[in-house]
Amino acid sequence: MADKSIDDTRRFATMVAAKQGWELNPDADFTDSLIEGLTVNWNRYGYFLCPCRDSDGSREADASVICPCAYARDDVAERGHCFCALYLRSGFAAAGGVPGGIPDRRYS
Ligand code: SF4
């Protein structure tokens, strides 16, 4: 699997946000750190393991937390952002929303 650059991953995340009708977190430094984490994970594991979660050891075990994870849609809809707060509901930040800690649905 070819390595990805930070720019590759940024394009991916931008495409995901556009496709889902979400927005990237406008906090550039925070978003940069998550993009970097996704890039590191791709280059380590060969898939975009969520940058806020640990691997359970295989692609199969991690399937639900490959970005965009299986929980993102519900978290964005209900909480305004995904677990990492990389993706925000459209208009969430403009309305003054500030991402906070939310429970991880992975093991719940
Ligand atoms: S919480 Fe889900 S959507 Fe958000 S960065 Fe992690 S894997 Fe991607």
Element layout with pairings:
Blueprint: H1 6-20, E1 22-24, H2 28-45, H3 72-79, E2 87-89
Helix pairs in contact: 1-2
Bound molecules: iron/sulfur cluster (SF4).
Describe the fold and architecture.
The structure is a single chain. This protein is mainly alpha-helical and 108 residues long. The chain has one domain: Alpha-Beta Complex (Ferredoxin Thioredoxin Reductase). The chain is built from 3 helices and 2 strands. It has a two-stranded antiparallel sheet with strand order 1-2. Helix 1 (6-20) packs across helix 2 (28-45). The termini are far apart. Bound molecules: iron/sulfur cluster (SF4). Residues 50-52, 65, 67-69, 72, 82-84, 86-87 line the site of iron/sulfur cluster.
Could you list some keywords that capture this structure?
single chain; 108 residues; mainly alpha; Ferredoxin Thioredoxin Reductase; 38% helix; globular; binds iron/sulfur cluster
Rg, rounded, reads 13 Å
Give the tally of structural domains: 1
What is the CATH-assigned architecture? Alpha-Beta Complex
Provide the helix percentage.
Answer: 25-40%
Number of helices: 3
Distance between the termini: 32 Å
CATH superfamily: Ferredoxin thioredoxin reductase catalytic beta subunit
**Outline type:** globular
CATH domain class name: Alpha Beta
Mean pLDDT: 97
Please state the structural category: mainly alpha
Indicate the CATH topology: Ferredoxin Thioredoxin Reductase
Unreliable stretches, pLDDT < 50, 5 or more residues? Answer: none
DSSP strand count: 2
Widest sheet, order of strands: 1-2
Tell me the β content.
5-15%
Bound molecules: iron/sulfur cluster
Biggest sheet details: 2 strands, antiparallel
Q: Order of SSEs, N→C?
A: HEHHE
* Oligomeric status: single chain
